[in-house]
Design a protein that fits this description.
This protein is mainly alpha-helical and 308 residues long. It has 9 helices and 2 strands.
Amino acid sequence: MVTYNDISSAGNSSGTSLDSRSLIPAVVLSVCFLLGFLGNIAVIILKPNWENMSSLSQSLMLNLAVSDLLCMLTIPLWTYSFLDSWTFGIEACKLVTYLGYCSVYGSLLTVTAMSIQRYFQVVHFERRLHEVEAWQLLVPLWLVSMILSVPALVVRKLHKDQHWIRCKPHYSSEGQRIAVVLTGFLVGFVAFFVIAFSYISLYRKVNQAAFFNNPQTTRLITSIVVTVFVLWVPYRAMNIVEIAAVSLHNKLVMKFCEDTWNAFASVTFVNSAVNPLLYAFTSNHLFTLCQKSAKYLMEKFRIPQKSA
């Protein structure tokens, strides 16, 4: 997902002054680390209000927290590289980037799976999802995340430019660059479409039961969709700009992408920092609402429960 496409390249060695392209992303990442690290640790330890949730839902919530925590653990190295240079060697460059990709893909796919689970539970009155073993879902999820992250191991190189040592992509061809960026864009676009469609459909279905139509539910579902949109769409828009620039051989636009990538990439880390607030500490309310809504609508329309 996050390509970190210069995320470590804004660092500077001693004697080179900092500029806003280095300092602002470093500040954003530092705040994300403080909030996200503590928030996800709290989720893993406290498991807030998960007593009434199904085993699958609890596993998804825990997996989301673990994914986001792994993402947070890469931040100190990226922050240091913003303020200095990448001094950790080529192996760390590839490994940390790969771990970052895996964690972000894992987080995004988990959120997508949660939205699909809730969609089928309420919109299609599907109860058998709770009988799915967690490993049957999480193992393929992490395998897909690991496979999608492989390009990070292939294209990441160390690059020395005057005072800078950068951990950045080095593509063997324009075709390879377009393929890598386009893959990330397509995965992100599909995930956002599924999340938005699932929660909007869920909201509409819940509103058929006037008893469950309340401001708290509206705010929660709206926050989920809007947050995903705000944090990911600008980054995906830059993917399109980069692909167009490479295809048209526009060096000016490519330079713009490289100069602004740090800011866009750092904002995507905010997603892992706010997930505990959006999901873990509110999911019991939404899960209970889904259960009650499904039961109410099934009774209202006299829909028989599907057998296992």
